[in-house]
Amino acid sequence: MQQGRNAGREAELKRMQSVALACVGVAAAVFVATLFLPATFWVRLLRAGAEAAMVGGLADWFAVVALFRRPLGLPIPHTAIIPKSKNRIADNLAEFVRDKFLNPEVVTDLIRRSDPAHWLATWFSEPANARRIGQHAANLMGVLLDLVDDRRIQAFLNDAARTVIGRIDFSQALGSVLEMLTRGGSHQQLLDAVLRHAIALLKRPETQQLIAQRVVNWLKSEHRWKQLVLPTEWLGDKAAEAARSNVIDFLDEVARMPAHELRAAFDDALEGLIARLKTDEAFVRKGEEIKDFVLRNPELADYAQNVWAALRDWLSNDLASSSPQLQQQVERVGLWFGRRLSEDRELRRSINDHAESFAAAAAPRFADFLTTHISHTVRNWDATDMSRQIELSIGPDLQYIRISGTAVGCCIGILLFLVSHLGEMW
Q1: Domain check: are 291 and 350 in the same one?
Q2: DSSP secondary structure of 374-398
Q3: Residue 85 in contact with residue 379, Cβ under 8 Å?
Q4: Domain around 65
Q5: Which of 53, 134, 200, 266 fits a disulfide with 331 by CB distance 3.0 to 4.6 angstroms?
Q6: Same-domain pairing of 23 and 72
Q7: pTM of the full structure
Q8: Does the pLDDT value for residue 229 go beyond 50?
């Protein structure tokens, strides 16, 4: 394709060079012809125009050629400008791209005007695009499965996983995770969720029935003779109701009071656990034991292999079917994402804001990388080949300068002749 484009450019350049040369040739022919004609006023006027046209055409030919090479191969100073200036052109081009295209203000303004969140919403809302994403996801999963089936890749992944697990301090890691959760108050939110779930569970009729049955069974096993004179079923119901009500009241009290003593005790217990996880040698040793168990237990390794084999087989069979579930699920997620993004203005605004912030932060680094890449690439080009490619691109337009120079030179020659011979005209 590149050779085809170059061939077309070569033909166009030669055509325009021929036109420019023909203009100078016509001027030269007129000049020579006037040498053999009587030196009348009009003949001399025509000769002056032709002479100036030749000068203008040749001067512009020299200027155009001097951009790309030495005219006639002569070592004339300040010629072959583009080949000699290759490194300077490389640096200036790189700086131009950096300053005009990758400036943080320019990039953020582009994102602001293009509204990428709206584009994403529109694109994902199209069923055809969602299908395309699903197909790509299925194809990618197939490639990944083939990759993971390679024994060398499996060995690498296995070694990498064992290395990563071997470097983890389980006790310290768990302590850090718990510390991070408690710092944001997430542990209290978790406690709230547990309390709500426990209260809802206790309020179920089947829970009371279970407690009552346990009480009845206890009475029958521990007080066999008393059940003959006491209404055990009634006692079981009453005991279950009392226990259930008291526990619900207590849990509800804890849920409603942020400063409840149980919450404070929960905080203290977690803080103590975190401190022990980070400093207690017993916890550290227990973490090492767990790590050794994970790394060395063959049953666990076999179980993990079996789970992966089952998952891989399911994925392979699904991808081989005419309508893979994975593809359908990705399509549904894509359509849901497009619909949600279309309906939620605040979400779109948030995505655009984050895109602008990311672009503003990444633009300087990417600009430096691209500037260096452009500069190094152009510097490594062959100077003659680079000059030729530029000439093929803009050379045909430069030939119009030669044509214009010939025409302007003719007009100036005629004008100067008329000015210098005003006396002969009157």
Answers
A1: no
A2: HHHHHHHS-HHHHHHHHHHHHHHHH
A3: no
A4: 2-86+383-425
A5: 134
A6: yes
A7: 0.54
A8: no
